[in-house]
Amino acid sequence: MDVDKDIEVDVKLFLANSLQTLIFQDGNLSSGSLDALIQHIVPTSDYYPDRTYIFAFLLSSRLFIRPHNLLAEVCQVCIFQQNLAQDRIDKGSLGKFGPHIVNLLSEWTELFPYDFRDERMKTHLKDITQRILNIYPELRKEVSTVMHNLLARLSKYEEMLSKLNSEALQSAQAQLVPTTDIIEVCPSPLVLAQQLTHIELERLSMIGPEEFVQAFCKEELTSETTFRDIKKTSNLESYVQWFNRLSYLVATEITSHLKKKNRVKMIEYFIDVAKECINIGNFNSLMAIIAGMNLSPVTRLKKTWAKVHKDKFDILEHQMNPWNNFGCYRSCLKAAMWRSQGAVEDREKIVVPFFSLFVKDLYFLNEGCSNKIDGGHINFEKFWQLAKQISEFIAWQQVECPFKKENKTLHYVLTSPVFSETTLSLASFECEPPENSFDKERHKTLKSEAGL
User: Where do the Ras-GEF domain residues begin and end (predicted)?
Assistant: First the structure.
């Protein structure tokens, strides 16, 4: 990492330009040039950036600069600013710079470990820590802890990925027609709601905060920025796929029964599961269950629904109604957040948001505010808002699920066969034959397409 004369000149210009290009309003950073914002995150002997700034900047800077290039620039500024390229370094003049830079790297690897799945990031990390250890050998333990914790986080992620891939493979290999149902496997709606919460929290914990911002980057790729550079994970997509699987599992369980009384029993069972999900604070499973019962192959079963005690279902639908921008749901979510903040028991800390709406809110925040303001400065007020919302999400991620695992139930939910849209429709017509001309024609078309 030797700094040649050209780089030295660039860094001098960089530092000179950054001195007067941060704008504060009422004591809060509101905008700045990219160079100035990078300079603001670099620690010195007597300065260390605020933790909230570190998170907000590392989160949103990837809209303008790739993480490996950012870390390279941070390293260059450190080398130039502290004269680390000299053969003889006066350690006394560096003060607390060594502990400060190690602490910054520790926070980066803790907050955004997936950045370091990129080999270029690992290389920069090794280079700067080795340079620091040459000057501060007494920091070897702290550096080792940073490396150990990073490796542990990345290893855990790879293990969870392997587990999910195994579950997906088992699901794909499962026989098409279920031989049992969820009520036989798990008679208690409360226990199923608890097991769904296990799945939700596990998948929630895998999502890196940067993935939300990287989703916004997709539309801003240039010839110099490849998809590989900005996205190393697909946990957002996997979480949405889980929501869809649960919805289709609900519909599959209902339409698998040819006897009306069994379908009624299954619908009322899932209504009770959804109610328990609300009590737990698991709104994502709740929404997936309601979505499954609102799929057309289920809603068309008029004779079945006529026998269902719908009062509880109507209450659930009202609470999750999209009217007034999901106003009722947002009130429920706020109540769950208040409960979580004052909770003593782990079970009261659980908040699993309706994920698609959470992502939609972030999307509209991103779309509604410009990344840059007049003069080309980066609009940091927007990034404070993004960081605030995603910080809440991180708090929800860190809750440990307190419920006992029921492996048989988990295995069933994750791997049992789920009908496709066409198979669901055909199963629905087997449950209740088509009555009007439109349904009769659709049934005929579906059977023809399926070769029946």
Answer: 188-434
Cα 445 to Cα 246, 281, 331, 441: the distances in Å are: 27, 42, 44, 6
In this prediction the pTM is 0.90
Asked if 35 contacts 14 with a C-beta cutoff of 8 angstroms, the reply is: yes
pLDDT band at 17 (very low <50, low <70, confident <90, very high): low
Nearest CA to 59 out of 286, 216, 202, 175 is that of 216
Q: Is 5 exposed, middle or buried (0-12, 13-18, 19+ CB in 10 A)?
A: exposed
* 279-302 average pLDDT score: 97
pLDDT digits (tens, 9 = 90+) for 134-170: 999 999 999 999 999 999 999 999 998 888 888 877 7
User: Measured between alpha carbons, how far is 378 from 51 in angstroms, rounded to an integer?
Assistant: 19
Separation of alpha carbons 197 and 281, rounded Å:
9
Which helix (H) or strand (E) is 22 found in, with range? strand 22-25
Q: Are 197 and 401 in contact (CB under 8 A)?
A: yes
pLDDT at 268: 97
